[in-house]
Design goal:
mainly alpha; globular; 171 residues; single chain
Length: 171
């Protein structure tokens, strides 16, 4: 479970009654895509002929540029998550990160899903004795790439949802 039971209006677009601008929605999607893409090699090493997670990342980026519809990005996210379901460990988490990134076009609050699954992928790929440190380093890498315009929003979201995101944002 990565989404709260009650939706935060800061992650609902203005046209749906929330306070999220299209510009900030796009920034959230691009940041989620960066988080997912950073760990895609962990998936591609396990399933080199499966393009679905990489396509999901490409689709959400295309959505932010107005090149495709939201539903196309959302569908690509579902395909990436289907790729994840047959795997385990780092590869599975990396594919889920890509899927979560793509569905940010539909529900902005999935931005933390992409980041959290990416951290889980890095942890799973690391030796057990260094897994926590590797996860914290990935969390810091992600935070370093947050655009200033959404930085406070995402950091507050991490604080509020850390418990339902496997406590991966303690970095």
């Amino acid at each position: 479970m990565i989404l709260p039971k009650v939706r935060d209006p800061r992650f609902i677009t203005l046209r749906r009654g929330g306070t999220l601008t299209d510009e900030h929605h796009h920034l959230l999607a691009l940041w989620a895509a960066d988080c997912a893409e950073h760990v895609l090699p962990l998936f591609e090493a396990a399933a080199p002929t499966d393009p679905r997670p990489r396509q999901a990342v490409e689709q959400v980026r295309a959505w932010t540029h107005g090149e495709i519809r939201m539903s196309d990005s959302r569908a690509a996210g579902g395909h990436a998550m289907a790729a994840a379901r047959v795997l385990t460990g780092a590869a599975r988490h990396a594919a889920f990160a890509a899927g979560q990134a793509a569905v940010v076009a539909h529900v902005a609050a999935h931005e933390l899903g992409a980041a959290a699954y990416a951290i889980k992928a890095v942890r799973a790929a690391a030796p057990k004795e260094t897994a926590q440190d590797a996860g914290r380093a990935e969390c810091r890498w992600q935070r370093d790439r947050l655009p200033d315009a959404i930085r406070a929003l995402v950091l507050d979201d991490q604080r509020l949802r850390n418990d339902i995101c496997w406590s991966v944002f303690d970095c």
